[in-house]
Specification:
Number of helices: 17
Strand content: 15-25%
Distance between the termini: 64 Å
Structural class: alpha/beta
Shape: globular
Oligomer: single chain
Bound molecules: nicotinamide-adenine-dinucleotide
Number of strands: 16
Length: 457
């Protein structure tokens, strides 16, 4: 098969690296995005995403003349779709008293609709957006067939899950194994020929629904495994155990691999994709649903941890325990009322600039609801425009005046902090570490009181 021109629809974290990699492999690529600002900045050679190695590949691809940009598709040999598939904010589903989130497939629908006028016999359409089971056959194919062409016979149609790790995207795009799900075996073969342009990893052909399910199973498994780690963190506190040490010891068992607890689960994959299963089959997904509940509740647990830290410092812990639980909270006010908190990190995972669905955002909002004044320092996106969140312009600005420091993301720069240097920048002496990033002894020597998630203080 000869693919000379590829139309990549959606130039985000997945589409832009893939489009530029394709162009760098010598094919003509038209990058399409409905956001005109993205198109304008790419035309100037500027990129809107932080990903190691991406800038060089985009620059090289543009300079080669192979990579151009538009807000609309054009005729091409391949149409590759990588648009967002979040959940809907405006509506939810309900089954047996359990509320669940619904997939928002609006971007996939509109991307497919935009392709219809340009679709020709022999073309290949590939969907990489993470999607509910049967999306390719039941949603995408009927839209594309409005062209008058038949999916699977006049044009090829595939689903291929994307499994790259942010921070490693440029390498993993090429090296990871690919599952190519065709709506017919011929479609899967066409998909293989397309990915062979740049993929060095193994390419496995299957059917479209299996490929969709593979992606959802991967992320759901991680969500459930993180939920059990988060539940262990709560149990460890109850029983006076250090969860991090307990996990380390349990993982010495050759067939056990417990993941790390933390402030919750975020990103637009692991915290979203399990809902696609729940929506598709609510009566079959009790465990998946419960894992989502546990992980979504974890930010509340963090807020309790911050409160404990203040209680401990104010010496009120004893009176609180002796009394009715809230005895130390003054006149019904939360102990966090008017407290100034420097929150470190807003990204959903370490060393990336991606803030989508971040549990850190939820923690900040919950602290604010308790009356705390929170300043957030996110070194990977200091100027992020997050509604209702006070972003600090520097670490110093976040620490200035703070009563406590809350470590929410395991960014390498935070883990490398030198306690004495931090002590010289702030009057705060309370630290709450949600990610097991800091050593208690080191920070105590510098005068801090460190409280760790999953460890009873
Ligand atoms: N980012 C990841 O690490 C990752 C990993 C695996 C799978 N995925 C999946 O890949 C898909 C894309 O994710 P992403 O992180 O690249 O999203 P993104 O939000 O970074 O980028 C999507 C881009 O698509 C554009 N867009 C939206 N609707 C469009 C339309 N109708 N036509 C053209 N452009 C449109 C947006 O403006 C945006 O620039 C999602 O389904 C996601 O779940 C992402």
């Amino acid at each position: 098969m000869n693919f000379q021109k590829i139309c990549v629809i959606g130039l985000g974290y997945i589409g832009l690296p893939t489009a530029s990699t394709l162009a760098a492999h010598g094919v003509k690529v038209l990058g399409v995005d409905i956001n005109p600002n993205i198109i304008e900045s790419l035309r100037k050679g500027e990129i809107h995403i932080q990903e190691p190695g991406l800038r060089d590949v985009v620059t090289q691809a543009i300079q080669s003349g192979n990579f151009t940009f538009s807000t609309k598709p054009e005729e091409a040999d391949v149409f590759y779709i990588a648009v967002p598939t979040p959940f809907r904010e405006d509506e939810h589903g309900e089954y047996d008293g359990r509320q669940y989130k619904l997939a928002d497939m609006g971007a996939v629908t509109s991307a497919a609709t935009a392709i219809v006028p340009y679709l020709r016999k022999g073309n290949l359409v590939v969907l990489e957006s993470t999607s509910p089971p049967r999306t390719t056959t039941d949603l995408l194919a009927p839209i594309l067939e409005r062209s008058g062409l038949k999916a699977g016979s006049d044009f090829f149609l595939c689903y291929s899950p994307e499994r790259v790790l942010p921070g490693q995207i440029m390498r993993e795009l090429i090296e990871n194994a690919r599952v190519i799900g065709g709506i017919t075996p011929e479609s899967a073969k066409a998909g293989r020929a397309f990915y062979q342009i740049f993929v060095k990893g193994e390419i496995i052909e299957t059917d479209a629904t299996t490929a969709e399910m593979v992606k959802l199973m991967e992320n759901t498994t991680r969500d459930v495994n993180i939920a059990i780690a988060n539940e262990f963190s709560r149990l460890a506190e109850r029983f006076g155990v250090d969860v991090w040490e307990a996990i380390r010891l349990a993982n010495l068992h050759p067939r056990i691999n417990i993941l790390s607890p933390g402030p919750g689960v975020g990103g637009h994959c692991i915290s979203v994709d399990p809902w696609f299963f729940v929506e598709a089959a609510p009566e079959l997904t009790q465990l998946i649903y419960q894992a989502r509940q546990v992980n979504d509740a974890q930010p509340h647990f963090v807020v309790e941890k911050v409160k404990q830290a203040f209680f401990a410092l104010s010496g009120a812990e004893r009176s609180r325990r002796a009394g009715d639980g809230n005895a130390a909270e003054d006149g019904g006010l939360s102990i966090l009322s008017s407290k100034k908190i420097a929150a470190l990190g807003l990204a959903y995972k370490p060393d990336v600039d991606d803030l989508r669905e971040s549990p850190a955002t939820e923690v900040v909002h919950l602290l604010q609801e308790e009356g705390a004044q929170v300043k957030v320092w996110e070194p990977f996106k200091p100027d992020a425009n997050m509604p209702g969140i006070d972003m600090a312009s520097s670490l110093e600005a976040a620490l200035d005046d703070a009563d406590a420091i809350l470590l929410l993301v395991r960014h390498t720069k935070f883990i490398k902090f030198v306690p004495d240097e931090i002590a010289s920048k702030t009057k705060a002496r309370i630290l709450v570490d949600c990610v097991n990033g800091w050593d208690t002894n080191n920070w105590q020597k510098a005068g801090f009181q460190l409280v760790r998630l999953g460890v009873r203080k």
